[in-house]
């Protein structure tokens, strides 16, 4: 059996990247970003990328790197705040943006992984989100049709993997990562730990290995805090 485990993030992306491709990248804010794989996408020099991700990282971190190197042509996202470079490139016309309600983005990705080409939702009806999209009445309510999202490569950050690619995610780093793992033609996962086969209780597996093509140990695990809020310790 061919191993799914690769020796470095660069090796894990070997032969997968090309100009004009679509990449899904997990994460929510600074939690669960594939922070070891993104620098290798940048180093490859590929350009005109379409990136599907909740947001585009924060200043100096995550997908911000690909914006800074002008490798991204289009973002399909649900949140554009906290990233001045994202804002500047969009307002200047350098970057195309397809803005989605957050739940709609998550469901479009899940639908892509489940093989469901389209679905209907009330979210966005009567707003710019619904412009140009088919609508239909269900039980007296108007719904807008949304289509699936799929990628050429999905970049995922997980906590643990076994050699078969079964994954466990840790707390909020789970966010968009499990759905994105199902929606890529090829799914590359960086993990904090690779455990021996048979280590997982089957009931504790968040993503089955059938969805995972390549695994690599993370080389970067910064776990940055986006906004640090503190209070004075109570006396006594």
Automatic annotation (TrEMBL):
<keyword id="KW-0808">Transferase</keyword>
<dbReference type="GO" id="GO:0008260">
    <property type="term" value="F:succinyl-CoA:3-oxo-acid CoA-transferase activity"/>
</dbReference>
<dbReference type="InterPro" id="IPR004165">
    <property type="entry name" value="CoA_trans_fam_I"/>
</dbReference>
<dbReference type="InterPro" id="IPR037171">
    <property type="entry name" value="NagB/RpiA_transferase-like"/>
</dbReference>
<protein>
    <submittedName>
        <fullName>3-oxoacid CoA-transferase subunit A</fullName>
        <ecNumber>2.8.3.5</ecNumber>
    </submittedName>
</protein>
<dbReference type="InterPro" id="IPR012792">
    <property type="entry name" value="3-oxoacid_CoA-transf_A"/>
</dbReference>
<dbReference type="Pfam" id="PF01144">
    <property type="entry name" value="CoA_trans"/>
</dbReference>
